[in-house]
Structure formats: structure tokens, C-alpha cells
Amino acid sequence: MNIPNRITMSRIFLIPIFILLLSIPFDWGSWDIGNQELPISHFMAGLLFILASTTDWVDGFYARKYNLVTNLGKFLDPLADKLLVASALILLVEMGSAPAWVVIIIISREFAVTGLRLVAAGEGLVLAASQMGKLKTVLQIVAISALLLHNYPFSYLSFPFGIICLYAAMIITIVSGYDYFRKNWHVMRDSK
């Protein structure tokens, strides 16, 4: 297993730790961040999410720079991304920090695009991510990070930065999903 794939695997292995930090009611105290409290366990989960999200960029950069792109990496990288983002979004719903309907739309789009990619793979085609899809990913990561950190540092201003980013991510998710299917509909139409 090459280095980019090991980095991707590390992202997958960080997900259970991330889930435990948000699921178990650790009593490690909290910090006052303006008009609310930020539990230390949520702060640690937020940092872990940011670290795991950063590995996505690192493994991709390393794989392209040193020509280490593999079929295993093509499979593991999007899987790791979807597991991390879906886990975070579902936990944010459980915490009452994200509306369930928004999360359902985002996760449904990910399932739909993954299905289209599977059909394309069956036809021997590889469907690359679009620039809009990359923007969607960045917005999702920023929104999730802000919500995990209870909107810090915007909490001092009572500005709902995290939820605004989440709604923006949802809109870009819908638009990029539509664009992805529009550009690649021939895969579904021509599949055998």
C-alpha cells in the first residue's frame, strides 16, 4: 500500500474516534465562547474533523505529484470522504445543530452521484469530480467545522456562520448534483 493510500486509510481510522468524541458524554468541561458554551470534547472532535478533512487534500496532492494514483485509492478516497462527512452531518442532527432535511438532501446527492459513478465504472468510464463538486466539498467541510465548534469565533458576534455555510453547501450540492447528472446522463442512457 503506497503512502497516499495509507493517508486515506488514516482518515477512515479517525472516523470512529471522531464519532466517540461526539457520542459519549465526556465531562471534560467547556469554554465560554460568547453567548454559549463549547464542550472540550466537541472542540477536540472539530479539530479531528479538520485534520481528517485535510488528509483528503494531502493524499490527493501526494498521489498526483508522485504519480501514485491507484485503483484502490480511487475507491478508498471518495469512500473515506463520504463516511467522514455523513458521520459528521448525522451527529450534527443528533446534537440539534443541523436540520435533518438539509442533511438528507446532502447525503442523498452523495448516494446518487456514487450510483452514477458505479454505473460508469461498470462501463469502463471514470467520472472526474467537477469544480462545482470541489466547491461543494469545501463548503461542507467549512460548515461542519463551524457547527462542530459551536460557531466559534463567530459566536462572539452572534453571527450564524456555520448554518449559513450549511445552507450554501446544500444549494451547491443540489446544483452540482444536477450538473453532474446533466453532463453524464449518457452513462445511464447508454448502460447495458
Describe the structure.
Helix 2 (40-65) packs antiparallel against helix 5 (131-148). A hairpin with a 4-residue loop joins strand 1 and strand 2. The two termini are 34 Å apart. This protein has six helices and two strands, in the order αββααααα. The protein has one domain (3-190): Four Helix Bundle (Hemerythrin (Met), subunit A). The mean pLDDT is 91. 74% of the residues lie in helices and 3% in strands. With 192 residues, the protein is mostly helical. The chain has a two-stranded antiparallel sheet with strand order 1-2. This protein catalyzes the committed step to the synthesis of the acidic phospholipids. Belongs to the CDP-alcohol phosphatidyltransferase class-I family. Its EC number is 2.7.8.5. InterPro entries: CDP-alcohol_PTase-I, CDP-OH_P_trans, CDP-OH_PTrfase_TM_dom, CDP_ALCOHOL_P_TRANSF_CS, Phosphatidylglycerol_P_synth. It is found in: Membrane.
Quick rundown:
It comes from Sediminibacillus dalangtanensis. By secondary structure, the protein is mainly α. Helix content is 74%, strand content 3%.
Helix content: over 70%
Shape: globular
Tell me the strand percentage band. Answer: under 5%
Could you give the order of strands across the largest sheet?
Answer: 1-2
CATH architecture annotation name = Up-down Bundle
Mean pLDDT: 91
What layout of secondary structure does this protein have?
Blueprint: H1 3-23, E1 30-32, E2 37-39, H2 40-65, H3 71-94, H4 100-122, H5 131-148, H6 161-190
Antiparallel strand pairs: 1-2
Helix pairs in contact: 1-2, 1-3, 2-3, 2-5, 3-4, 3-5, 4-6, 5-6
